[in-house]
Amino acid sequence: MIVVKNVHKSFGEEEILKGISTTFLQGKTNLIIGQSGAGKTVFLKCLLGLFLPSKGSISYDGENYATLGNNGRRKLRQQMGMVFQGSALFDSMTVEENVMFPLRMFTKQTREEMLKRVNEVLERVNLQGANAKFPSEISGGMQKRVAIARAIVNKPKYLFCDEPNSGLDPKTAILIDNLIQEITRENNITTIINSHDMNSVLEIGEQIVYLKDGLLEWEGNKDIIYKTDNENIINFVYSSELFKKVRKAQLQGL
Ligand SMILES: Nc1ncnc2c1ncn2[C@@H]1O[C@H](COP(=O)(O)OP(=O)(O)OP(=O)(O)O)[C@@H](O)[C@H]1O
């Protein structure tokens, strides 16, 4: 569980996050949504410990990153997995080497132990046998699955995903969403996803935080979002004609 209390973040005179408080739940897919420029990436970077909040606190199962020493921060960072936008695989490394990378960085496991774990996670994301392939030899959806395997190989307590299905076709996007949700539940991870994708909101939004101009304007989940009378959210989530029809049907209990 990650507890965020009154987080502000400024760059010089400009305040980007203006006092955000929320709780991200363990074993759930928590989504951060909001229009371009709302502050989602800055918030995600604060949650990753890449930016320190100017004010307020973020605690990870009781540990406040800002007040930890170097050792404590390193340990906490090792408990975080990250799926970057566009996968961010190392092009010159094979799938196996990409997935093994965090184990080489953060553990003292033997090559045999690392390989066993790599094969376990590759199997979990349905990429068994793809070890020797290079990123350029596999599809975008497969690259994303490699990125997920790499993010979970070190058994993180916290998983952060920045636009995990950007650039994927709708069917593959849903498969990736569902895979992240399944892995989150199986391993009881606190997963936070920065998303633009309204399909994801309605499919896996177990906890949704809607940011607007650096403030948390609404929070809830996919089962209640259609009931909101907040015009900003209605216009954002249900922006297309199709989604407007979906909302109407939801309101009519269809
Ligand atoms: N390192 C930085 N220094 C100064 N300003 C920054 C920095 N990073 C982000 N900002 C500013 O913070 C604001 C919010 O940016 P952010 O990237 O968090 O938005 P976002 O909600 O993620 O948008 P998008 O959906 O387009 O990615 C922007 O005005 C941006 O210019």
A few lines on this structure:
The protein has 2 domains: 2-79 and 156-251, Rossmann fold, CATH 3.40.50.300; 88-155, no CATH class.
Describe the fold and architecture:
This is Phospholipid/cholesterol/gamma-HCH transport system ATP-binding protein. InterPro entries: AAA+_ATPase, ABC_transporter-like_ATP-bd, ABC_transporter-like_CS, P-loop_NTPase. It comes from Mesonia hippocampi. There is one protein chain. With 254 residues, the chain is α/β, with parallel strands linked by helices. The protein has two domains: 174 residues, Rossmann fold; 68 residues, no CATH class. Helix content is 39%, strand content 24%. The chain has nine helices and ten strands. The protein has a six-stranded mixed beta sheet with strand order 6-7-8-3-9-10. The radius of gyration is 19 Å and the shape is globular. The site of adenosine-5'-triphosphate has 10 residues, from helix 1. The site of adenosine-5'-triphosphate (ATP) has 10 residues, from helix 1.
> CATH fold name of the largest domain, please?
Rossmann fold
The helix content, as a percent range, equals 25-40%
Bound molecules: adenosine-5'-triphosphate
| Strand numbers in spatial order across the main sheet | 6-7-8-3-9-10
Radius of gyration: 19 Å
Question: Which CATH architecture of the largest domain?
Answer: 3-Layer(aba) Sandwich
Protein name: Phospholipid/cholesterol/gamma-HCH transport system ATP-binding protein
InterPro entries: AAA+_ATPase, ABC_transporter-like_ATP-bd, ABC_transporter-like_CS, P-loop_NTPase
GO molecular function, one term: ATP binding
Keywords: ATP-binding, Nucleotide-binding, Transport
